[in-house]
Design goal:
Elements (H helix, E strand, L loop, with lengths): L1 H25 L8 H12 L10 H13 L3 H21 L10 H39 L11 H5 L4 E3 L2 H9 L2 H13 L3 E2 L8 H11 L6 H11 L3 E3 L4 E4 L11 H10 L14 H6 L3 H11 L3 E3 H15 L3 H8 L2 H11 L3 E4 L2 E4 L1 H13 L6 E3 L6 H8 L4 H12 L4 H14 L4 H12 L6 H7 L6 H10 L10 H18 L1 H11 L2 H11 L7 H11 L3 H16 L2
Parallel strand pairs: 1-8
Antiparallel strand pairs: 2-4, 3-4, 5-7, 6-7
Helix pairs in contact: 1-2, 1-27, 2-3, 3-5, 4-5, 7-11, 8-10, 14-15, 20-21, 20-22, 21-24, 22-23, 23-24, 24-25, 26-28, 27-28
């Protein structure tokens, strides 16, 4: 799942960077940063084409998904609707609204329709957050950190070696075989449509007995954890004041589409808490709450595996330390780890063999998401053997030079240099609007020497890569290599400006000064407008706004006019 989100974010990055450059001159009152989550979740759950927006998409994203994922509901309530309005206008005015989309007028009308409901949803999130903060304050005043808190381990987690995550295709295949999801599906199908439930006891004793027999459960008490899991997975949902029904898609589990499978598995991730022991005494049950998370974090810190006897001893000490009733609760539970390991095994997150418990790839993926939910820093990336060229280029942007070199060396060790060069340049060609990916790819391929010549020659056919290909082939004295043209040089400059613009205004202005004094820059602006670069117009607008010399600003305006008029 992580690599799917990262890939979608990487795909959107150049488009959002262009939107950020577009906003000051076209929608100065909007905050472009608020658009990122909307665009990301539109890509993840609505449309694979980031430019395809149909009626209903906005309602789904804004009213169903945003309340679950928004980080700053106050800012969202104030500015997300205007920001999305600006983004849709940007897509339409720049020709990025894909054919087949609803018209801009229709989309903006839908935005107006959902605005009040969206603001109300954000107010509900704010109220819930404030309530949670009050409860957290009371918890902090009344008790020490609990067993399931990750924060005490934050420094150790941050210091861990990189956690390598498996690709979605493998994770989805594993998720299809998760026993607890299959049982939750069967329970939901048994519930059926329009089943009446009670106020105090959802199911009567006879119904519980029937459900237990139908599902083949050894412990009747597990029925309620499965019931809650079925709701978490959206297999089961209320459809009235006193009735529940199975979702129409439930019978199709396990689904064919990998993304759909992983979405379902992620919906149930927080069910790890259902593994905590349940005792007859509520106070004793509370003393062991968080035990499942406590076990997971210790597996992570140990590199993925621990002996069960060692874990049992360590967690018993932790329970006694965190709660005055911890020791009594541990004794009353008999074997507190039994329910923990049963649930985690059933959800596909661990395996237990020869008294050793080990995180599975699904377990590692899920734990990374749980840590991210708690804002705990963790270094997690796709496994080297599953890392695409675009993954490598995207992740390298956030690494130190030394770390990026190490990552590249490990990735390169799995393929010959000629193939590596071809893959890197192909990835860069797919991201024509992403100058950073292009520059990174050119740098890495340039280090491969003569083995990269065929890939460079092929790259000559790609307008966005031709300047780099011509430059490198000429530097290597390759026979019949085309000399870089003035337009090639100008393209390289525009790429440099695009990257610096993404770093902030000071960096952008500094990159302009690198060209030379104002007369030199003005001379460049008088000709660079001819280059058909995807960010040309936004960069010229930004030069006009940012450069301290008014004459440069005027030259940028002239160049922008010529670029737009084609003269």
């Amino acid at each position: 799942m992580t690599d799917r989100i990262e890939a979608a974010a990487a795909e959107l990055r150049p488009l959002l960077q262009e939107f950020i450059l577009w906003t000051p001159g076209n929608a100065p009152g909007s905050d472009p940063d608020l658009v990122g989550p909307v665009a990301l979740w539109h890509r993840l759950i609505a449309r694979t084409d980031v430019g395809l927006w149909k009626r209903g998409d906005l309602r789904t994203i804004l009213l169903e998904r945003m309340p679950q994922v928004v980080e700053d509901p106050d800012a969202a309530a104030d500015g997300m609707i205007p920001a999305v309005r600006a983004y849709l206008t940007f897509l339409s005015s720049t020709g990025r609204l894909t054919p087949g989309s609803a018209s801009l007028e229709t989309l903006l009308a839908e935005l107006d329709e959902v605005e009040d409901d969206f603001v109300e949803a954000m107010e509900d999130v704010i109220a819930e957050r404030d309530w949670d903060e009050e409860e957290d304050e009371l918890d902090e005043e009344g008790s020490d950190e609990g067993l399931g808190d990750f924060e005490p381990f934050a420094d150790e987690i941050a210091a861990l070696p990189t956690i390598r995550l498996r690709p979605d295709v493998e994770l989805a295949e594993a998720a299809r075989g998760v026993p607890l999801i299959a049982q939750a599906r069967d329970l939901a199908l048994w519930v059926g449509t329009g089943r009446k439930v009670g106020e105090e006891t959802l199911l009567g004793e006879a119904e519980v007995d029937e459900a237990v027999r139908t599902l083949g459960l050894s412990d009747p008490r597990n029925i309620w954890n499965l019931w809650n899991l079925a709701i978490d997975l959206e297999f089961l949902a209320p459809d009235g004041d006193d009735t529940v029904s199975v979702d129409s898609d439930t019978e199709g589990w396990p689904y064919e589409d990998d993304d759909d499978v992983l979405d379902v598995w992620m919906l149930g991730l927080h069910s790890v808490d259902y593994g905590d022991p349940e005792l007859d005494d509520d106070d004793l049950t509370l003393a062991l709450s968080g035990l499942t998370r406590a076990l997971l974090v210790r597996l992570l810190l140990a590199g993925g595996g621990r002996r069960v006897p060692e874990l049992r001893e360590e967690l018993a000490e932790a329970a006694a330390e965190y709660d005055d009733l911890g020791a009594d609760a541990w004794a009353a539970a008999g074997d507190p780890l039994a329910s923990v390991l049963t649930w985690l095994t059933g959800y596909g997150m661990v395996t237990v063999e020869n008294d050793t418990v080990t995180l599975t790839p699904l377990g590692a993926e899920g734990l990374v998401h749980l840590l991210d939910d708690e804002d705990i820093e963790v270094d997690a990336r796709p496994a080297i053997d599953a890392m695409t060229a675009l993954d490598l280029l995207s992740f390298s942007a956030d690494m130190s030079e030394e770390e990026a070199d190490e990552e590249f060396a490990a990735w390169l060790a799995l393929r010959d240099p000629a193939r590596a060069a071809a893959e890197l340049l192909a990835a860069a060609a797919e991201e024509e609007a992403d100058a950073l990916v292009r520059v990174q790819a050119a740098s890495l391929v340039g280090a491969l020497g003569e083995a990269a010549i065929p890939a460079w020659q092929e790259a000559l056919k790609e307008p966005s890569l031709r300047p780099y290909a011509a430059t490198h082939l000429t530097q290597m004295d390759v026979e019949d290599a085309p000399e870089p043209t003035q337009a090639d040089t100008h393209w390289l400059i525009l790429d440099m400006w695009t990257i610096s613009a993404g770093l902030g205004r000071p960096e952008f202005v500094s990159s302009l000064h690198d060209i030379g004094p104002a007369p030199t820059l003005i001379g460049l602006l008088d000709v660079i407008w001819k280059v058909r670069h995807p960010h040309l117009e936004e960069l010229l607008e930004l030069i006009d706004e940012a450069h301290p010399d008014k004459q440069v600003g005027k030259a940028a305006k002239r160049a922008l006019f010529k670029a737009r008029s084609g003269r």
